[in-house]
Design goal:
six-stranded mixed sheet; binds zinc ion; 4 helices
């Protein structure tokens, strides 16, 4: 399947001509994500298509599937996060008024339409928006030999470490 990294589109033309782009993107090609991951292995499957909404405005539809390995904020062990993103991104042509957030369909994001839009950075942006603020296991696997009361942490415990 096609590699998405390095592909640049004219976003308005892409939407106007109702083009499709299907490909794979390596997680390691998303530099803004790598910092928060336990490791950067894996591939994302991506499908980008363009079209017009009911009001005649041009938009992109982005679907991303795959899995990220985040760090659990409680035990710092890897945490698998399945991704299944489907976002509609409204294109705002240069000089056009920015949509009023209160009036527009809030299921769609809006971005400035670029003549040279990197598809990988578009995907990275949508993936970042889809991530939980503080990813955690539902129940962390505690280190062997620890007692069940290990989760009851005294507020003073952190002070003594400094
Ligand atoms: Zn955990």
């Amino acid at each position: 399947m096609k590699q998405i990294v390095g592909i640049v589109i004219d976003s308005l033309a892409f939407a106007r001509e109702e083009r499709h782009l299907v490909g794979k993107l390596a997680v390691s090609d998303l530099p803004r994500l790598v910092d928060i991951l336990a490791d950067d292995s894996g591939l994302l499957s991506c499908h980008l298509s363009g079209g017009r909404n009911e009001e005649g405005k041009l938009f992109l539809l982005l679907e991303v599937e795959g899995e990220l390995r985040l760090k659990c904020q409680r035990c710092l062990e890897p945490l698998a996060l399945p991704l299944d993103i489907e976002s509609r991104i409204l294109l705002v042509p240069p000089g056009a008024p920015w949509p009023d957030e209160g009036l527009e369909d809030d299921s769609a994001d809006a971005i400035e339409a670029l003549a040279e839009q990197s598809v990988a950075s578009l995907i990275e942006e949508e993936v970042l928006l889809a991530l939980p603020v503080a990813p955690r296991h539902e129940s962390c696997v505690l280190p062997a030999g620890s007692d069940s009361d290990i989760l009851v942490v005294s507020p003073f415990a952190t002070l003594t470490r400094h």
